[in-house]
């Protein structure tokens, strides 16, 4: 296992003065390549906050954050945008897909944004990913017409579009029934085995967490297990 | 950026009714812009053709000179009153030789040398003062289109004929073909046959004017050579100032543009044009406010999507581009449809050469369609900058709201 990313003494506080909330209090975490990790912890423990920082969508108050040898705390907004596009995929719980676009258009978005247009090659890869997610017959469906489970599988396909080293998923199965949740997790596990993509998945569901090889528990702003 | 264009057009087609309404709003603004341009332009054209179009654009006249007073040094103070002489005709003795020169000046379409003066019309015991214009035969309609104002007879003047206004005919109870005496201040009298009657609707200065043949006028005013006045007509009366200067320089004569005497008319036209700019500016402001508010609403509604796009690696610049492109598309669609609507709405109005009293003089050729479309696109792009910037500032974390 080679190191993919590392955060050291990560601190994140919101607000200031009386309303100051210290969410992360010097958290240390290292993730390697080819990991399949669950992120656990009580509500309000800072799981989403940590994922957001790891995803370069938010700067930590202090601490170091490196990934693939880049010091991401020093990077500009434009550099982080490009870095995200190339190396990080996201799966969110809500508001995941662009509602005015089809499943395929959603999947190829990360490549189209980089290439400035939708190419035949990116469409082919998007189709292949949707096929792997068992959505071959939903390729040209408008996003709002998909079921919750289908939407999350499209989101996983999109997260994989640029072959990132890291996929961050914040409660990707939170809205799904057991069968759909298991299906999504199976697909994630399969991709992780076949492509070596590292997944960090926050969840409240012990059974979902059990399907991951590693469990990371946060509490009081630190990794506790 | 092709992909930004795709997203922008997808956003616009996603809510068709809303987009249609927005484009319609822009089109109405463009329509007002075009309608105002055509109306203000047509009105100016109409007023000019009805006033300045029918006058001499450049007039060469000798300065009226009164006889020099030969007074010796008189003791004490002397008050001297001299009546301005009606007889002392100022003439342009050499002017005729310049005629070919003036006719060759570009934009000059007609030159009419005249022998003018004042006189008294007499029929029986009735008299009426008139101002007399002696014109060359064949040039009667060169300056004022007399032919178009003719209500009876002919506008053609030969030796011994006279063309009079309707009101004078009524004053003297004359009929076509009857004779009338015209007496010059010098006492010379000409017996003239009435061969034409004109009527100029606007009345005023022209009702006292009679037209006679220039040869008759020479005898009447005892002016065997030279002329008293040269009237010049141009193809475009807006060039008058420059061409008057050119003719003055060319001939050494005192050529005066119509604008000097018609300053009030120019002022009125300028005020009218300003009203037009005002209304057109308001039409543009309406368009800009409409586009800005619609797009601002759209950025607000699409915050989560903008957050997702940013998370997927869309730059702020890309987001700005998506929304500015929407503004531009709305501007193009609204501008084109507004211009099309405007053109269709103006079609039923008479062409500028067919303007007549009682209708709105709207000139379809002065709709400024291109300008309206360009200003609308620029306005819509400007209007989208603020919403686009606010979209680009959307924080992905709060927008996605995990
Ligand atoms: N933008 C913010 N401003 C102020 N406080 C915030 C902000 N974002 C998060 N917090 C606070 O930080 C703490 C951690 O929030 P976070 O969303 O990371 O928790 P979580 O572990 O993801 O919880 P859940 O399991 O309920 O999703 C919470 O107390 C929350 O109120
Ligand atoms: Mg959370």
Would you write up a description of this structure?
The complex is a heterodimer of chains A (225) and B (402). Chain A has helices at residues 47-54, 77-87, 103-115, 120-132, 148-160, 178-195, 206-210, and strands at residues 3-14, 21-32, 36-40, 62-67, 70-71, 88-91, 166-170, 198-202, 214-219, 222-223. Chain A is of the alpha/beta class and 225 residues long. Chain A starts with a strand and ends with a strand. Chain A has a single domain, classed as Rossmann fold, CATH 3.40.50.300. In chain B, 49% of the residues lie in helices and 17% in strands. Chain B contains 13 helices and ten strands. Chain B has a six-stranded mixed beta barrel. In chain B, helix 2 runs antiparallel to helix 9, helix 9 runs parallel beside helix 12 (369-392) and helix 11 (316-346) packs antiparallel against helix 12. The longest helix of chain B has 39 residues, at 263-301. Chain B is elongated and about 105 Å long. Chain B starts with a helix and ends with a helix. The model of chain B has no long low-confidence stretch (mean pLDDT 85). The site of magnesium ion has 3 residues of chain A, from helix 1.
Largest sheet of chain A: 6 strands, mixed
Q: Which architecture of chain A would the CATH scheme give at its second level?
A: 3-Layer(aba) Sandwich
The computed structural class of chain A is: alpha/beta
CATH topology of chain A: Rossmann fold
Number of strands of chain B: 10
Percent of residues of chain B in beta strands?
15-25%
Low-confidence stretches of chain A: none
Uncertain runs of chain B with pLDDT below 50, 5 residues or more?
none
What number of domains of chain B?
2
Q: Average pLDDT of chain B, to the nearest integer?
A: 85
Strand order, biggest sheet of chain A? 6-7-8-3-9-10
Strand order of the largest sheet of chain B: 2-3-8-5-7-6
- Annotation field: number of helices of chain B: 13
- What is the CA-atom radius of gyration of chain B, in angstroms? 33 Å
How far apart are the termini of chain A? 20 Å
**SSE topology string of chain A:** EEEHEEHEHHHEHEHEE
